[in-house]
Amino acid sequence: MKNSIRVSLTYSYRGETFTPSAVIDLDKLGDNEGPVDWHARVALANGIDTYSYVYEVMRESELHFSDATGLAANHLSDQGFDFKGFTHAYRQAGHIGPLQHIARDILQIDDLNQEPAIRDALVQAYLLGKNC
Predict the structure, then answer these.
(1) Which residues are CB-neighbours of 129 under 8 A, at least 6 positions away?
(2) Angle at 22 between CA 68 and CA 28, to 5 degrees
(3) What is the predicted pLDDT for the residue at 132?
(4) CA-based angle 27:31:37, to the nearest 5?
């Protein structure tokens, strides 16, 4: 399933109120190590120049996250969107496919999600081997 989230904000500029928003494809950001500049992504999706005064005003506005899909839905709450938690889950989910084959062939486990301790151990072993 696609991982996405809607990012929106409201700000006033020259007596007008604007409410730009953008649906962000998180699959393109899943391996991102650093912070995401959500304001810039919303601005670019709405044709707002990131070198303009309008953008500077926009950056002062609070972000609102909604309409999360896929793994992102598990990391959206009233407090906002936990992007760090999402990226961790996204990476783990990417490893589950190949590890599921190992679990089925060697451990006779058809669904690793039903055995979270074994799933986590296999993921940790995979990551350890990957970093060696």
Answers:
(1) none
(2) 65
(3) 65
(4) 80
Q: Is the CB of residue 42 less than 8 Å from the CB of residue 62?
A: no
Q: What is the mean pLDDT of the chain?
A: 88
Q: Which residue has tokens 């506005």?
A: 61
Q: Is residue 82 left, alpha or beta, with left meaning phi > 0 and alpha meaning psi from -120 to 50? A: beta
Residue 5's closest CA among 32, 33, 41, 34? 41
Query: Mean pLDDT throughout 17-27?
Result: 95
Residue 130 scores a pLDDT above 80: no
Contact criterion met (CB below 8 Å) for 119 and 112: yes
DSSP 8-state class, residue 12: E
**How far is residue 3's CA from residue 48's CA, in Å, rounded to a whole number?**
25
